[in-house]
Structure formats: structure tokens, C-alpha cells
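Hi V.,

You were right to ask for the full record rather than a summary. Here it is.
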Amino acid sequence: MPEAAVNAYAKLNLTLDILRRREDGYHDLCMVMQSISLHDRIVLRTTESDGITLSCGAAYLPAGRGNLAFRAAEAFFQATGQRNPGLHIDMEKTIPVCAGMAGGSSDAAAVLRGLRRLYAPEMAIEDLCRIGAQVGSDVPYCVFGGTALAEGRGEILTRLPPMPACWAVICKPPFGLSTPELFGCVQAKKLTRHPDTRGMLRSLAQGDLTGILHRIYNVFEEVLPEKYSEVFAIKDQLLDLGAGSAAMTGSGPTVFGLFPAKETAEAAFHALKERYGQTYLAEMVNAKDEKTEENPG
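Predicted structure:
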């Protein structure tokens, strides 16, 4: 039976700015996003029976419509007008959940990319992103991948020059963080500091890693409730261990530090891993044309 295997890459927010609250209750955002090598593994297999099934080694994740990957498959078949064929989705999770790294959205995007490979190889990535937007705000970026400017709710995407080579140490503290709770703490007009998005775009265009590191910032850190102060303790540890910059990604609580030198990053990874089990070492991942990508390893 035909199958497709796809890596679902985690993302980091190099910048995250909240511009305003919209009439529909959402917020207009401006974010510079980056894919990293930390990934889940998605394998799609056609089956002889009708309908979609999903399996995952993580028992705490839903296996039906409560899973974004499942809903992404439904949205793809509906958008392409195909009768829902037999499909099994097998997920191997590595990205931590509820971590601000778009793990669920990346899984959904990987399903969409894999289904395009199997059923609609000529579909434009823009069309695939539009399908992804029906599933979740971060899904279009995860389809797009690489280094990108994301605006609106995250669905307006602009390809950016690739991030220069560096290494990320990612650390998730032992608690979750509610995205609606954090957005509820935000009053956009009262934010006192915003990321230098123009400077970030200029630094990326110049391949200036030092300039990029100086401009990493997430406005959610300004409104983070005191009970999540361990986020800042991890940031301080990463900087003490030699990170050129450190910040919370997305709506947290995961913190990342970026290191120009691999040896320094490896030492920081081992130091933090002793205290925090969900600590990872990753590289930057540049965008690829998924239409011609072979099954990744």
C-alpha cells in the first residue's frame, strides 16, 4: 500500500509581537518563526478500509477528531473533493506538548504535506497553507517551514532569508501554560516593549547572527504571571551557560537559548538536562520544497 513518511519540525519564535485585539476576539500578531531539527515523525499509510484512523505512542493524546493531525486529514480530503479513503496516521512524538513549539500544528502540517505527496503532488504550497488555516493558526506556518514572517493570526506568511547556522538548547519547565490565560493577560496598548522586527528582518537579510541574537524577544514575557517565574530562571541559566540570546517561545513555557558554537551548546544542554528532563539540542532547519522532498529520515 502507498505510504508517506514526513518529519514534523518544531518551531521557535525569534520574535513575537502582539499588535492589537481584533473584533473577532483574536489578536493581530507579528512573528519571526524558525523551524528546528527537533521533530515528530508522521507515517501515512493507505488502507483497504474506509475512514481515518490514528495511532500514537503518547497515550495522553486523543486518537480521533480531538487530534489536529486527524482533523488535518479530514480538511485535506474535503478541500480536494476526494471521498475519504482509507488512511492510517502513525505518530511518533518527540516534541513536548503544550510547550509553545507548535507540536500539534506541526503534526497537522506534516499530514497535509504527506497527503499532498500521495494524492495531489501538483498542489501549490499556498493552497496547502489555506487548508491548514482551517485546522489551526500555526498550521500554515508549519506547512511553510523554515524562516518566515507570520502576520495576522499567523496565516499571512512571507519567506525570509534563512537563519545563519547556530544551535538551540530548548528547555521546558515541569508545568504547562494556558495560551488563553496568557492572551487574557495582554493589553496590547499597555505593552512597554516590542521586538525590533525591522531590525530582525535586516539582520536576517545580511546573515548577521549577532544582530539576530540582539533582537530576539517575546512580548508574552512582559505579562507572564509570577507563578511561572521559573521561565526567567531558565533564561538566566542559558545566558550564564553561554547563550548569545534566550527567550520564551510562543505562549510558553518552553525557553530556548541560541549558541553560535556547537561545543558551548552541547555543554549547556548537558548542564540543563541534569535538572530538566525535557531539554533538547537542535539545529536550524531551512525550508525545502516539500513537493520534491523524498521521505526524510
